[in-house]
Design a protein that fits this description.
It is a single chain. With 158 residues, this protein is mainly α. The protein has two domains: 85 residues, Rna Polymerase Sigma Factor, Chain: A; 60 residues, Arc Repressor Mutant, subunit A. The chain has eight helices and no strands. The longest helix has 22 residues. The protein is elongated.
Length: 158
């Protein structure tokens, strides 16, 4: 492992720096890459890919994970957050939730299951594909179709 680290650490750090502007974040990603390399080394198969290809694929996936988990979140404008005058916000939210619940109930079962699993349970579409024993591309297609159905149904109810 020490030899692998000495051989690839500078290259992986340069790769991470090319994708991540902050040096400290790039160094954290580089450390994570080599932790994953160490953990996965017993399963590495040189017949499938060269060591450098394998390490760079781990680096690419780790950078993607970094961006997936560190999305920038902008705070809402205070005027938007504090708009509870006369209780209208609660009334509007209740009506919206009722309309959404009714729209979800009118969707085909598979489509409503995908929406509930994705938006309420926080599952990724790939996880849902495994849970529902369907292909990822089929889940993506059904997800898009379900959102289109919901949009159409909610336009008439709101």
């Amino acid at each position: 492992m020490e030899r692998i680290y000495r051989e690839f650490s500078d290259k992986v750090l340069r790769y991470a720096r090319s994708k991540i502007s902050d040096l400290h974040d790039a160094e954290d990603v580089c450390s994570t890459v080599f932790l994953r390399v160490q953990q996965g080394l017993p399963r590495y198969d040189s017949a499938k890919a060269s060591l450098s290809t394998w390490i760079y694929s781990i680096a690419r996936n780790t950078v993607a994970d970094f961006y997936r988990h560190t999305r920038a979140v902008e705070p809402l404008n205070e005027e938007i957050v504090c708009c509870e005058e006369d209780g209208l916000e609660n009334l509007y939210n209740d009506e919206t939730l009722e309309a959404l619940a009714a729209a979800l109930e009118s969707l085909p079962k598979r489509e409503s299951d995908i929406i509930v699993l994705h938006y309420y349970s926080g599952k990724q579409l790939k996880e849902i594909a495994v849970l529902m024993k369907m292909s990822y591309s089929n889940i993506k297609s059904l997800h898009k179709k379900a959102l289109a159905h919901l949009k159409k149904l909610l336009q008439f109810r709101l």
